[in-house]
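Consider the tokenized backbone below.
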């Protein structure tokens, strides 16, 4: 009888020791994993950020002075710069506005609640209440939009509403790509075009 009690006590003690060891190892693993997680910090943070993009009007030699023209102005309440990472980017967590100019100097405007600029690929990712307004009043509204600065091309795969006051129409659709001057538009899928009623003056 005593032998049975001793055997039972030994098995219980062994099981308890294994359980404690397992729990301790599991806790250790989780804490080490959390500590090993890399923390990412921006190399710089700027409030009331403003950046002007320019380009040379003609090719220059080493003796020429730069004659440049403004092609875009980006403004934001807050900019976080992660160009210290291997894949560099900038974040605009409080939204941004971009004014970009065509060859004739006409201004078009983009606004969004959030933005990210990929430094190496020169792609701008805009999200949340994205609105593009052209100099002649055309307007595109969508939830997400990409602007390829290298090719001056803008595109979205999301649903959109496009208003054209010149033609007096509103078009709803999904997916669109176009150039920054709004002179070429390619809607992937449309749900219908509605005519805007003109206000009559008495």
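A designed sequence for it:
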């Amino acid at each position: 009888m005593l032998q049975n009690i001793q055997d039972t006590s030994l098995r219980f003690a062994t099981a308890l020791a294994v359980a404690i060891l397992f729990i301790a190892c599991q806790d250790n693993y989780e804490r080490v994993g959390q500590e090993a997680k890399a923390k990412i910090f921006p190399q710089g943070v700027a409030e009331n950020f403003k950046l002007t993009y320019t380009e040379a009007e003609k090719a220059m030699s080493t003796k020429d002075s730069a004659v440049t023209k403004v092609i875009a102005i980006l403004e934001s309440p807050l900019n976080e710069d992660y160009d210290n990472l291997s894949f560099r980017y900038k974040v605009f967590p409080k939204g941004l506005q971009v004014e970009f100019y065509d060859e004739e100097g006409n201004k078009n405007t983009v606004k969004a609640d959030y933005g990210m600029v990929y430094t190496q690929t020169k792609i701008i990712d805009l999200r949340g209440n994205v609105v593009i307004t052209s100099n002649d009043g055309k307007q595109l509204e969508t939830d997400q939009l990409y602007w390829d600065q290298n090719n001056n091309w803008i595109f979205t795969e999301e649903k959109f509403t496009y208003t054209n006051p010149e033609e007096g129409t509103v078009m709803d659709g999904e997916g669109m790509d176009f150039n920054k001057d709004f002179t070429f538009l390619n809607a992937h899928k449309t749900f219908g075009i509605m005519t805007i009623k003109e206000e009559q003056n008495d």
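Residues 2-6, 15-24 have pLDDT under 50 and may be disordered.
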